[in-house]
Amino acid sequence: MSNLNTTEQVWAGLTKPQLQRLEPIIQGLQVALARRYGNRLAEICADNLLREVVRRPEIVCAIEGVEDPDVPQSKQQFDTLAREMVEADELSMRALAFSDEKKKRELAQEVVNELAPPRRMTLARTGQLDDYVTKEVAARLEGGL
To answer: Rounded to the nearest 5°, which phi and psi values hold at 116?
Structure first.
């Protein structure tokens, strides 16, 4: 019995021509993950997704040289593949949630620091500081700041 898991077994069994057919798919997925998630997705998660791609039926068809209309070819198709794979991977979803929360905390601190002390104190005394910070953070996240 082998110590390799299923994905490692598939990778270990790939021939040179199969690896050559797989290469553009891996590159397209790498670009899609970077474009869609940037540095929000931990590198270890992205690497895992790239290794797991060989377990998808449409990719197996491509590796074997079979024409399959579901094999991604365009930017939009690779983006869809990246989104589907990330959403199906619990570790990736947790990494994104952690990254988003970290960014929200950083933005909240920025908002508070940007407020003039008298304004900050007035908002805090009236109980509106948290609401103000939440709205500002949401606006900045939507605006891509």
So the answer is: -65, 140
pTM assigned to the model? 0.73
* pLDDT tens string 18-54: 999 999 999 999 999 999 998 889 999 999 999 999 9
Torsion of CA 91, 31, 16, 1, to 10 degrees: 0
Length of the chain as a residue count: 145
Other beta carbons within 10 angstroms of residue 75's beta carbon come to 12
Return the closest-CA partner of residue 112 out of 85, 89, 135.
135
Helix (H/G/I), strand (E/B), else coil: 33: helix
* Of residues 18, 5, 13, 4, the one with CA closest to residue 59: 18
- Write the DSSP string, the chain: --S--HHHHHHHH--HHHHHHHHHHHHHHHHHHHHHHGGGS-HHHHHHHHHHGGGSHHHHHHHHT---TTS--SHHHHHHHHHHHHHH-HHHHHHHHHHHHHHHHHHHHHHHHHS-HHHHHHHHHHT-HHHHHHHHHHHHHHHT-
